[in-house]
Fold:
Amino acid sequence: MDTINAWTSRLDRWLVFAAGAALAYMMTMTVADIVSRSLSPFTIASSVEQTELAMLVVGFLGLARCLRTDGNITIDVLSQHFPDRLNRWIDTFWLAVTAVLLGFLAWAVLRSGLALDADGQRSELLGLSPLAGHAVAALGLAAAAAAAAQMVVMRLASRR
Structure:
């Protein structure tokens, strides 16, 4: 189990690093585009497409870390009255459901990107295949599914 934890921890760090780098790139490119529009007739024509791709990277590659750190917003009205043991079982159940659903979503997104690429669709300015964005989303969803599955296994193993 320690080997899996170490491997997933390294993967998590790389995904978060990529998301952070994409965020820094997106902000730098946006500022450069605004400054260039204000001071000269020059503009970055593909800034919108680049921003969209960077937002995909930030959102989807940060999803696994969000699951691991309980970074999601929760509204706890009813379960605060349940015993801790019952809440742990409920949380474990929903993590398992999350793992399965995210796994299916990752596959569906990748399959959709492959179909759009096969149809020859390309982005308007950069000429990128839709598979570029879909692959990032699928990677992030698959990593989040793996993180949720690992958390389920760890919770079940700690109960023994």
User: Anything to note?
Assistant: The mean pLDDT is 87. The chain is about 75% helix and 0% strand. The first helix runs from residue 2 to 39. Residues 2-74+81-158 form one domain.
